Amino acid sequence: MPKKRIKKWLAVPVVCFIFMGCSANETSHQHAKDNQKNTIRIMAPLLSPESPGENSPSLKALEAYTKKDIKVTWVPNSSYNDKFNIVMASGDMPHAIVVTDKSPGFIKSVKAGAFWELSKYVKDYKNLSRADEKVMKNSSVNGEVYGIYRARDLIRASIIIRTDWLTNVGLDMPKTIEDFYEVLKAFKEKDPDKNGKDDTYGMVVPKWMGLGNGSPWDIMQTWFGAPNRYGVNENGELVPDFTTDEYMEALRFFKKLYDERLINQDFAVMDSAKWNDPIVKGKAGVIVDTGSRASQIQSALEEADPKNKNVIDVVGTVKGPKGTYTFPTSGYAGMIAIPKASVKTEKELKDVLAFLDKMNDEQAQIIANNGVEGRNYKLENGTFTSLEKNNKKLLYEHEGLAQFSMGIPEQRYYIAEQKTRLFKHRQQVVKEGEKIAVFNPAESLVSDLYTQKGAQLDNIILDAKTQFIIGDIDEKGFQDAVELWYKSGGEELMKELNELYLQSK
Fold first, then answer.
1. Cα(341)–Cα(19) distance, integer angstroms
2. Which end of the chain is more exposed for a tag (fewer CB within 10 A), N or C?
3. What residue numbers bound the domain in which 127 lies?
4. How many distinct structural domains can be found in the chain?
C-alpha cells in the first residue's frame, strides 16, 4: 500500500438466570406457561447499584399499562456481553433481549439466524413505524434490521466551559478553533480563578482515545474537516479517517495542546470516571463531551459552593479551516432484539412487537424514566419536580426500566432541568448541529474481518495516536503505524467494507 495519504474525502443486573440444562420439553413448557400468563421475559443490563424489584411500584405500573407480566433478568453492565454470549449458547432465551452493541457475539448470532429480521413488521405499529430512517439504518446489520434501536440524540457533542473563568480572563465563548486555543491558553496562564497561583490548565481529557465513538479527540478532529471514522474520497470509495490530511492537522493541534500543557499531562492514563473532578475542584475549565455532562458539573459545582450558580455553559462547535462541522452520534445506544428460540411464530413475534410499541407510548416512557407520580415525582401547574433527590431507593425503583424504553419516535418523559438556561442552550446545540453533522458513511456496515481482527487493528492506531501526542513518535512514526495497520489486515478490511458499501448503495 503506498505511503502517501489520500488527501481528499467528502463529508457525507444483579442476578442472571441461565438454564443451561433445560431440555427441549422443559423449554417448550416454559414458553406455554409464559403465553398462558401473558408474560414477557426480558434480559437487560443494569447500570444502577440496585435493580427494580418484582414489587417495584414502577414495574407494577408498567405491567398495568402494558397488560403484561414483565419478568426481567438483570445483568451487571460490566459483564453484559459475556452473559449475552452464555445465554445465546444456552438456548433458553428471553422474548426480548437488549443488545448493547454490534459485538462479535451478536453478529455471529445474527448470521446463524438466531434473531428475527424486523424490517417488514415495524410499519404496522403506531410508534415503531415512525422510527428515524437514518438511525434505523445505522443500527442495522448491512441494511437488515435485527433490533429496535434505543434512541439517543443525534447531536450531543459540546464544548463545556466555566463562564466565570471566561469573564475573569476577559474572553467570550469561542467561535473558531483559534478562539478555542486562546481560551485554553488563558485558562492556564491568566489565573482564571484569581487565587494568585499557577495551578490551572485549559481542558481535561481522559484516556478515552476513541475511533469514531465520540471521544473528545473524535469530536475535535471534525472541527478540522476530518471524517467521522471513514470518509469518502473523490472516487466514491471509503477511506479511514487517519489517512487524510485533515486528520493529521487535527493530530498536530492535539500535540500542541499537550506540549504547551494546556491539557492534563496524564490524559493517557486518566480514569474517565474521574473526568469531572478537575473542573469541580477548580483545576481545569473545559471539557469536550456530551452536553449532558454540563449539568452534572454545574450541579457538583453548586454543591461544593452555592456561589457557583450558572457558571457552566455550552457551545456546540467551533469553525475550522474548512468550515463548521460537528460530530454526531449514531442516534442510538444498542437495540432490543427478538430471539427466534423463544419467539417461534409470527403471531408471537407480533405480540412482542406490540409490547415494544406500547413501551414507546408517553405514559410508558414516563413510568420507565420518571417513575410513579406522587411517589417518584410531582407535577404542579405543569412543572415537574423529582422527589428522589435525597432518596436513591426511590430512583432505583424505576431507573433500570429505562434500559428497555426506546424513545421512538421521540423522548416523551419529563426532564427536571427543562426550564434552565443551560438546558435551553443544549437544545440549541442539538438543533444547530443536525445541519452540520459529519456522519460515518460505514455506520451500518458489518465486516467479518473487522469482527475477527478489529480490536487488534484499532489498537495499532490508538497507540500511535497517543504516542504522537505525547511525543514518543513523530509524523513518520505515525505513518509507519498506518502502514502496519494496512499490512495487518487493514487493506483487506477496506476492500471488504467498500464491497459492502457499494452493495448498500
1. 14
2. C
3. 24-154+330-414
4. 2
